Amino acid sequence: MQRTNSIVQPPTNGKLITVLSIDGGGIRGLIPATILEFLEAELQKLDGEDARIADYFDIIAGTSTGGLVTAMLTAPNENRRPLFAAKDIKRFYLQMCPNIFPQDWRSTVKKAFKSIGGPLYDGKCLHNIIRKHLNETKLGDTLTNVVIPTFDIKRLQPIIFSSYETRKKLHMNAKLSDICIATSAAPTYLPPHRFVTEHDGKTNEFNLIDGGVAANNPTQIAMEVIAKELNRKNPDFPNLHTAEYGRYLVISIGTGDCKIEGGYTAEEASKWGLFGWWFNANGSKPLVDIFTQASTDMVDIHLSAVFHNHNVQNNYLRIQEDCLDTDLSPLDKATEENMNCLIEVGNKLLTKKVSKVNLEDGKLIPCRDVTNKEALIEFAKTLSHEKHLRDGTLQRVSKPDPPFCLEKKHYFEAPKTISIA
């Protein structure tokens, strides 16, 4: 049964299953924020200025800073509309991040001492900001389904907070603020977060850190959550096999990778001890960079191959910058200059060609003769069409030439294994 608070009609009323995923990356969340602002603006051109990202996706997944963006897009305000418009997220980051990650000389001195014993930041400012905006909102209150990964350091296992799970596992219906604080608790940067949920007189304890240690790119987690619901015969979903990828529409947005030749060499790393792997002389944190970028790329490589093998590669759009300047790569560099540069990275990323991962060297190579901006414009048309199809208002919107998204001139390909009435 569809959640009563959802503003999205279930996929069974339409033709697609729509997924949005946002990577982790600290202050680099400004890059996907810029991309999302463009996408929402395109949706507003089609459906009016009140259109919001959450109106169009069956599931929105986010890790770390992506989890925070997910909450901002899906948490309800007093009018049962999304708490933030996409265009407001950049302003939020620009205003709040200098307080969350202070850059003055006093803070620099404090970080130098804290790096020896304890996280670089106490997290109090971030926690207060999150709690102020999300208040008592719980995971089950979001306006569409969300998935936010974390990692429990006491149980030594990933904990995936999913809106779907709150229906069967009521103890997972935690406060959205606690989940966001937990998924943002990057090791060495912010302290782990402990909280307790209660249900039927029982308590459940969580001791969580950044979901990026398990799934910095949460796209595959989102797909697996959907597969689980399909196996459960959830009536929200059409009766299809989990491998029928022609019914999926997936947008996955990264926060930038710094894949520059000579970043780390074996000769250099062979001299590192425990401290060297965690703190490099140039200010980077090699071990953190390695495990986040490795998991990020593995997910993209897997999904690119899966969609390509099913001949529906155009239903999957990964937007990522893999040549981020080293000066822009820190998760906590919240200077005005750096944040504006990250926004510019997002704007330039829109003008780049749609790309895929080269399996030989891991770098992105153009795979279509369209830009990310052009691809998002086509995605917006498809999302709008799908929404009106589900809402039963298709006759009142401008429709593209039929059959929509089935001809080669359109961006998406038709599913080849099922028949749609």
Automatic annotation (TrEMBL):
The positions flagged as active site in the entry are 64, 210
Q: Which InterPro entries match?
A: Acyl_Trfase/lysoPLipase (IPR016035), PNPLA_dom (IPR002641)
UniProt short sequence motif GXSXG, positions renumbered to this chain: 62-66
| Example of a GO biological process term | lipid catabolic process
Q: What PROSITE patterns does the database record attribute to this sequence?
A: PNPLA (PS51635)
Which Gene Ontology molecular-function terms are recorded? monoacylglycerol lipase activity; phospholipase activity
Q: Which UniProt keywords apply?
A: Hydrolase, Lipid degradation, Lipid metabolism, Plant defense
Q: Where is this motif: GXGXXG?
A: 24-29
Q: Which domain of life is it from?
A: Eukaryota
Report the residue ranges where the short sequence motif DGA/G is annotated in this entry: 210-212
Q: Which Pfam families match?
A: Patatin
Q: What is its EC number?
A: 3.1.1.-
Limits of the PNPLA domain: 20-223
Query: Has UniProt tagged this entry with the keyword Hydrolase?
Result: yes
**What function does the entry list?**
Lipolytic acyl hydrolase (LAH).
The record's similarity note reads:
Belongs to the patatin family.
The domain section of the record reads: The nitrogen atoms of the two glycine residues in the GGXR motif define the oxyanion hole, and stabilize the oxyanion that forms during the nucleophilic attack by the catalytic serine during substrate cleavage.
State what protein this is by name: Patatin
Q: Which organism is it from?
A: Ambrosia artemisiifolia
